[in-house]
Amino acid sequence: xxxxxxxxxxxxxxxxxxxxxxxxxxxxxxxxxxxxxxxxxxxxxxxxxxxxxxxxxxxxxxxxxxxxxxxxxxxxxxxxxxxxxxxxxxxxxxxxxxxxxxxxxxxxxxxxxxxxxxxxxxxxxxxxxxxxxxxxxxxxxxxxxxxxxxxxxxxxxxxxxxxxxxxxxxxxxxxxxxxxxxxxxxxxxxxxxxxxxxxxxxxxxxxxxxxxxxxxxxxxxxxxxxxxxxxxxxxxxxxxxxxxxxxxxxxxxxxxxxxxxxxxxxxxxxxxxxxxxxxxxxxxxx
Length: 286
Fold this sequence. Notes:
alpha/beta; 10 strands; Protocatechuate 4,5-dioxygenase, Chain B
């Protein structure tokens, strides 16, 4: 039985036609790429960071990453790393996932291989009402069109060492000779009283940009250790820091040297109000 959509009607439109138009609007938004995808370039996009807020806020930022994915070689499988906003530990899903755009198939065979090498256990309850992975799926469905995509959804929490998890994911990729793209679902700093984090009260926009861009600098250098160290030192509320760290480490262990920032903005830029704002970044590693 497929996992039913939890986020439809809250984070994105619940009806197929309306959702298709909403995603198209994300690409054409003033905060988005401004155009739909173009001809394929033939590169492999190995790693991606994309935000997971409501599409009206972070969708245009996510569109940058998905535009790069569709303009290049589609992998066999997308490993999607999310977090648990409810506090569940690290776990995997072996179910297919359903959205208003249809059902996305789970690559169970590959997922089971990851389980054997990592020790991760399936926990469908943890995934059932978690939006961080789900909000990536309509974008994948929109860009894949007639191509069948497969996913391995994984929640990554602080209960597993990020480097060990990454090492064993890499081991599985090599053993299976699998062409993958690994997506880390994360927003960046959550600022304001609502989030319990307000290290500055003046020049909020500039300070928020500076705070997140210093974190992004470590991601661009594919330095997961320094990235996590920075979030600890500053207290920066990057909700998906562990999924990001695993994605960065996987890319580094597979020989990549750098990541590229495609787009950064905040919900404050969208609303014109920085009293409570969240940073969004779209990043790729080729």
